[in-house]
């Protein structure tokens, strides 16, 4: 490892969780590059976090972004936080929705991790953190595409961990229950529209889905990522850190 500022790349870095992760890694002393599709959202990121447009479901775009970002310094930390979530009962889940969930939630993490891992292994140092979900551990109604894609993401995290075991590289997942973020705000709006409940009622239903009984704060997810990305977590590999207040059996 060199002595220069370590470099972290965060997919979905302009999102609710990704933004908190970028800020935490920046405070921890990393140079942080956030990846996203929307340039205006990336431009709103607080400095010194840098934004780079990249559709992380696009193989060529991911390869180009990683080559450019890692051209002058190696990537020490990759956080896979890009994600999408829609809900529907299985019989109304379209193939398009299924494919989109897999592309954004699982394939993007595969493409990015595959792109950064060889250099991490060569340097014998690296941290890969996957923002999965409690949906990576359990099935709930109306979430087939999301839940299956998050199970796939956790499977990828565990497989990478098995491949890097015993090296200076680690691969772990963070699995929060509902987090206070734009993704959850969209879910609350959809539930309110479909059920006629008020937004507060709809939010309470999501919060009560986990033993925690409230939404997880983005900073609580970021703190877990910060730990897993740190030197202190060198012996932690292949784990899924569930943030739901207790209850998920792993
Ligand atoms: N919110 C929750 O309750 C919750 C709970 C557990 C796990 N998670 C997971 O945590 C992660 C972050 O969620 P969040 O709550 O922060 O959601 P969010 O605020 O909606 O952020 C998601 C981010 O993903 C980016 N993204 C989506 N598709 C992309 C693509 N093809 N290429 C590049 N970036 C893309 C979006 O940026 P652009 O639109 O600019 O591309 C957006 O910034 C997701 O994987 C989610 O499944 C969320």
Automatic annotation (TrEMBL):
InterPro entries: KR_dom (IPR057326), NAD(P)-bd_dom_sf (IPR036291), Sc_DH/Rdtase_CS (IPR020904), SDR (IPR050259), SDR_fam (IPR002347). One of its GO terms (biological process) is monocarboxylic acid metabolic process. One of its GO terms (molecular function) is oxidoreductase activity. The keyword Heme does not apply. Residues 6-175 form the Ketoreductase domain. The keyword Membrane does not apply. Gene3D superfamilies: NAD(P)-binding Rossmann-like Domain. It holds the Pfam family adh_short_C2. Keywords: Oxidoreductase. Belongs to the short-chain dehydrogenases/reductases (SDR) family. This is Short-subunit dehydrogenase. It comes from Murinocardiopsis flavida. The lineage of its organism: Bacteria, Bacillati, Actinomycetota, Actinomycetes, Streptosporangiales.
């Amino acid at each position: 490892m060199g002595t220069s500022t370590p470099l972290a790349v965060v997919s979905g870095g302009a999102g609710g969780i990704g933004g908190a992760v970028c800020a935490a890694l920046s405070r921890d002393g990393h140079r942080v590059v956030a990846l996203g599709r929307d340039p205006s959202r990336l431009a709103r990121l607080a400095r010194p976090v840098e934004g780079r447009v990249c559709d992380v479901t696009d193989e060529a775009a991911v390869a180009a972004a990683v080559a450019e970002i890692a051209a002058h310094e190696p990537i020490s930390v990759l956080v896979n936080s890009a994600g999408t979530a829609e809900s529907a009962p299985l019989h109304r889940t379209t193939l398009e929705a299924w494919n989109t969930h897999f592309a954004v939630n699982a394939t993007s993490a595969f493409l990015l991790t595959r792109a950064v891992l060889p250099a991490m292994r060569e340097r014998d140092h690296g941290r890969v953190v996957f923002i999965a979900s409690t949906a990576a551990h359990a099935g709930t109604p109306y979430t087939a595409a999301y839940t299956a894609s998050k199970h796939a993401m956790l499977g990828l995290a565990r497989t990478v961990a098995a491949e890097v075991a015993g090296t200076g590289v680690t691969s772990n997942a963070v699995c929060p229950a509902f987090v206070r973020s734009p993704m959850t705000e969209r879910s609350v709006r959809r539930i309110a529209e479909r059920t006629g409940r008020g937004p507060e009622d709809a939010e309470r239903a999501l919060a009560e889905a986990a033993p925690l009984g409230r939404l997880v704060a983005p900073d609580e997810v970021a703190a877990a990522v910060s730990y897993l990305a740190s030197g202190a977590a060198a012996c932690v590999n292949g784990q899924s850190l569930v943030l739901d207040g207790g209850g998920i059996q792993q």
